[in-house]
Structures are given as C-alpha cells and as structure tokens.
Amino acid sequence: MAGSERAVPGPVSRAWNERARRVIPGGVDSPVRAYRAVGGEPVVIARGAGARVVDVDGNEYLDFVMSWGPLVLGHAHPKVVAAVREAAGRGLTFGAPCPAEAELAERVVAAYPGLEQVRFVSSGTEATMSAIRLARGATGRDLVVKFSGCYHGHADHLLVAAGSGLATFGHPSSAGVPEAFASRTLVLPLDDEGAVRDLFAARGHEIAAVIVEPLPANHGLLPQRREFLAALREETSRRGALLVFDEVITGFRLGPGGAAERLGIVPDLATFGKVIGGGMPVGAFGGRRDVMRHLAPEGPVYQAGTLSGNPVAMAAGLATLRILEEEDGWSRLEALGGALEERLAPVLGAARPGIRLVRAGSLFWFDLGGGERPPRRAEEIPGEVSARYAGIFRALLLRGVMLAPSALEVGFLSLAHRETDLDLLAEALAAAIEEAEGTGRQNR
Ligand SMILES: *Cc1c(COP(=O)(O)O)cnc(C)c1O
C-alpha cells in the first residue's frame, strides 16, 4: 500500500493493455473496465485475496469494486475456492441435471419473498431478458415499463432510455437495437408514482410487466421512497401486469430476501445474478409457480442454456450462500456499512459539503452533485460530477485504493473488509480530495 509516487498503471499493465487492444475491442470485454470515464488505461489484475487485488506490476490495491458485486465474501475465499475445486474434479459440465441445481434453487426459493420456483442462467442479462419474455408470454401482452436510470443488462428490449418528457416511448440507447424493439418499452422517471398511475390508466391493459431495480444501484445509488415502489405493486396488480424486481445487484447482498424483504413488497418475478454465483457466471429468475409454469418444457415460453445450472458455478453460489448464512454475513455487512459512514463522516460532511456518502447495506456511492438531499432520479445527477470524480478516483488509485472507474458506479463492501480498511479508505480519501481539489476549495 501507500506511496503516491508509483506509476499506475505500470509498464506491465500497459503492455498487456496494448496486446489486448489489438485483438479485443477497446482491450476489454465489458466497456466500463476501459477507464474511459476517468481517463487513462486500466491496471491489469494478476490476483486477488480477501479485500485486496494485486496488478501485474506488483501494486496492491484495497478493492471496493469487488468484481462489480459478486464477491460478497472477498476475493478467493478459501471455502468457495475449495468448493469450486471439488466440483470441477467431478466434471465441468454435463448438460444434464445435477444435485447442486436443486440445492441452490431450494435456498433461493426459501430465502426470497413470494418465490416458488427459479431457473438458472449464466448472467444477469440473461435473467432479465428471460423474465421479460416470460412476463410477455404469461400475460399475452407486449409492453414493458422500465425506469430511466435503472440498468437491467444489455438485452435489446431493456437497452432503452427515455427521450424527454414523461412516458415516452423508448429510444435505443445503443446502436444495433431496432426502434421497433425499443418502442415496445416505455420509460418513466423514478420517484414519480403520478406518472406510473397516469400510464396505467391510459394503457394498463397493454402492459405485460414493470421492471425496476428496487434499490437502483447502476446510475449512482438512488434509494427510492417506499410509496413509489408500493404504487408499482398496486398498479400492476390492479391491471394484471407483472411486477419484476431486478435484484441482480441487491439479491443476497442486502439480505437473503433482497430489497423485497427490506421493503415488505413482494414482486411477481425477481431476477438474480452477481452474489448468487459467488464469482462464477450465474444468473437466475424466479417467481410464483403459476407464472413460472409458462416456461418450457411445461409451457410455451422458450428459454434454454448449454451451461445453465453449471455444476461448478452452482457450487460457488451454494458455498457463498452457506457462508453468508453460517457467519451471520448480512448483519455483519450492515454493521460494516454503518462503520463506513462513521469513518467517512469527518472526511466528508461538514468538511466537504459537496461530497455525500450514500449507503444502503454494503453498497455505497459518493454523491458529488451537491444537491440538498441524495438524488432519487438519474436526471438529478449533474453531468459535471464525472470530471470531478475522475480526479479523486486517480488520486485514490495512486494511494492503493480502487474504486469503480466511473462516477455513476457504486462501491461494494465484503466480509473480507476490516474496519482498519475503512480507516485506510478514509485517510486516502481525505488526501485524494486534497490533492485533486486543493485545500478548502469547494466546487459547489
Ligand atoms: C449487473 C446487473 C445486470 C446485468 O448482469 P450481467 O451479469 O452483467 O449481465 C442486470 N441488472 C442489474 C440490476 C445489475 O446490477
């Protein structure tokens, strides 16, 4: 750790980036990894253990990215690694049912409110894509409602953002998504139950599903008022549409029952990913039996996967959920989140009115927008936060602290983080802000 003199990324990282860029677009397999939002180029990771990663130049970092969410126990947890090794020794994949699928499904069903059945896939994107197809198949309706600022993976129908105005038809937020697909997705702002009620009054009979991150965590961290989410439950129930909670980031992180349990709101369908795979590629979607029975082979909605329910991935997920349960993981994560708030209060707060810590459980985000209260809508986050964040991000990286390379991404605590790590973060953050912005200067 420490020492802000080192070169980051170092020469070995740079060499690997150059090799990768020749044969992989942008040198990365997921765009935000390329550091475009913060400038420079990524450090290339050689290994990780607990709360720390080491890059190919030998620099160590205290990690708050944690692979963007899955690593709730930290990197290379010995029991998870042992479970993976053991499963791998018995065979990597069979394309036939294996016991671990039923075991993990039993755990997920027992833990999550209202869930009776679940199907495994290999990513969060697949989970939401399949849940939407199922909702359309089960209701016989086409329209899907999503909210601006919520991310549901990169399936065509969900890679859609609003134009200006309320209840706009979606426009593709990516080249390659046909307008015709996007037009089947309606986009509303978060935090506005009036807009939801108006839309349902006008078109409720055409709406198959409303999909929402019950705790939006992919465009900043935007905790919602319970009344807003309750209105979604009410309107969908009244008009025969399905409510889909996308808990890919929150599922088994906020608690065994995800955000649904915290809110006391039971969705019709829920999607999972990240934590339930324990670092291996796993996603899942589930719901009530009467909805899930529409899926093939029982029903007409097709959905499949060569590696779905993969035995090695299932073993990693099972080991992770077992450990969380046995070691009182969720209350420890909550306590760690509380400790983070305490440690950062003297660094931010009154000392830096323009920077606010927003936290929910083990998820946290630095709100640089300078608003009077934490934002609840994507549109409330000013564009200027990006440049400001970039300076702080780089200064932290030089000090051996790794945050996500974008102002809009959240940070993750894990059971591997110690309170002393939070002290290190607080110290590094104070110094990084100082370096990036100068003493006493407050940008807004
Ligand atoms: C990460 C995420 C996804 C996409 O999952 P992938 O495994 O990256 O495909 C979908 N929804 C939410 C809420 C997510 O956080």
Description:
The protein is of the alpha/beta class and 444 residues long. It has 2 domains: 3-76 and 328-443, Alpha-Beta Complex (Aspartate Aminotransferase, domain 1); 78-326, Aspartate Aminotransferase, domain 2, CATH 3.40.640.10. It has 13 helices and 17 strands. It has an 8-stranded mixed β-sheet, sandwiched between helices. It is globular, with a radius of gyration of 22 Å. The chain binds pyridoxal-5'-phosphate. Pyridoxal-5'-phosphate (PLP) binds next to helix 4. Pyridoxal-5'-phosphate (PLP) is lined by residues 123-125, 128, 151-153, 213, 218, 246, 248-249, 273, 283.
How do the helices and strands line up, and which of them pair or pack?
Elements: H1 11-23, E1 45-49, E2 52-55, E3 60-63, H2 78-89, H3 99-111, E4 117-121, H4 124-139, E5 143-147, E6 160-161, E7 168-169, E8 171-172, H5 179-182, E9 185-188, H6 193-203, E10 207-212, H7 226-239, E11 242-246, H8 258-263, E12 269-272, E13 283-287, H9 289-292, H10 311-326, H11 329-344, E14 356-360, E15 363-367, H12 385-398, E16 401-402, E17 411-412, H13 419-437
Helix pairs in contact: 2-10, 3-10, 6-7, 11-13, 12-13
Bound molecules: pyridoxal-5'-phosphate.
Pyridoxal-5'-phosphate binds next to helix 4.
Fourth CATH level, the homologous superfamily of the largest domain: Type I PLP-dependent aspartate aminotransferase-like (Major domain)
Main-sheet strand order equals 4-13-12-11-10-5-9-7
Shape: globular
Unreliable stretches: 440-444
What is the N-to-C succession of helices and strands?
Answer: HEEEHHEHEEEEHEHEHEHEEHHHEEHEEH
The major beta sheet can be summarized as:
8 strands, mixed
Determine the fraction of residues in helical runs and give it as a percent range.
25-40%
Q: Indicate the CATH architecture of the largest domain.
A: 3-Layer(aba) Sandwich
The overall strand count is: 17
User: Tell me, what is the CATH class of the largest domain?
Assistant: Alpha Beta
Bound molecules: pyridoxal-5'-phosphate
Instruction: Work out the count of structural domains.
Output: 2
Radius of gyration: 22 Å
Give the terminus-to-terminus CA distance: 31 Å
